[in-house]
Design a protein that fits this description.
Blueprint (H helix, E strand, L loop, with lengths): L2 H14 L20 H13 L3 E7 L7 H16 L3 E5 L5 H7 L2 E5 L5 E6 L3 H7 L10 H9 L7 H42 L5 H16 L8 H13 L1 H4 L2 E7 L10
Parallel strand pairs: 1-2, 1-5
Antiparallel strand pairs: 3-4
Helix pairs in contact: 2-3, 7-8, 8-9
Length: about 260
């Protein structure tokens, strides 16, 4: 890549993350005043975005930030996602507008790594209502999710809250199993149609997910999202999508250790 192309790419990333106004400022540190905490978070993302990765895995990007700065960081991540990239992040107690406006799909994990919900954000409310825990009016849905998934260790509350968490996990497992069976049936019908209409070998991108999902549903139906076959299945979809969006074949992990760039 030529020097001109590198400069153009750097300017593009800075503009994407709202760093163009502080582009000439020093980062700063303990003894030198520099850019703000939110700008440092976005700078950490910008460093990883230079190579144009297809997937960003981000560890608690809003921790330690005030509400406004946290919203700005999540807006930057949302803009990255809207540009055709996949963002996977862990987040703790997001404010309501971040939950509603910045998140597309959610995985709610309880203690032990069991899945209490995984799917579109818009389906959280109906799923909880069907389990007997509708979101109260004017309540932050993210707070309600965390309240339901937490165990209260205070005396007699522990037994009741553990039962509630177990009920959530069991309800989601049943609903997810039914959805998998319906999806599998639809894919099998599509597979038959492809074979009849085109009279040739079924493409790998259709056959492999179907075979993996069929084996996963039969052999590992009792396991959570943290088992190896499931993870391999999901990352297959991530990697197979790279050729469609024409992004660099890279997966970038941004952890809390990278949130504070230092002067070289």
């Amino acid at each position: 890549m030529s020097r001109k192309s590198k400069i153009a790419r750097a300017e593009e990333v800075m503009k994407m993350l709202g760093l163009d106004l502080c582009a000439d400022n020093l980062v700063g540190g303990e003894l030198l005043k520099g850019i703000s905490g939110g700008e440092k978070r976005r700078l950490s993302l910008a460093v990883q975005m230079i190579n144009d990765p297809a997937i960003l895995i981000v560890d608690e990007p809003t921790s330690g930030l005030d509400a406004l700065t946290a919203n700005n960081v999540m807006t930057a991540l949302n803009d990255i996602a809207r540009s055709g990239r996949t963002i996977i992040l862990s987040i703790h107690q997001p404010r309501s507008d971040i939950y509603v406006d910045k998140l597309d799909n959610i995985i709610l994990l309880v203690k032990g790594g069991q899945v209490a919900y995984a799917g579109p954000r818009t389906e959280v409310g109906p799923t909880l209502a069907s389990a007997g825990y509708p979101i109260p009016p004017l309540y932050n849905p993210a707070d309600w999710l965390l309240d339901l998934a937490s165990v209260d260790l205070r005396g007699d509350q522990e037994t009741a809250t553990r039962q509630r968490v177990a009920k959530l996990v069991e309800h989601w497992a049943g609903a997810h199993r039914e959805k998998q069976e319906l999806d599998l049936k639809d894919k099998e019908e599509d597979l038959l149609q492809v074979g009849v209409q085109e009279d040739k070998f079924t493409p790998m991108w259709i056959a492999l997910p179907l075979i993996v999902e069929r084996g996963d549903s039969k052999q590992f139906s009792g396991l959570g999202y943290n088992n190896s076959p499931s993870l391999g299945y999901y990352f297959y979809y991530f990697i197979s999508d790279l050729s469609m969006v024409h992004r660099e074949d890279k997966i970038v992990l941004v952890t809390s250790k990278k949130w504070s760039p230092q002067l070289q």
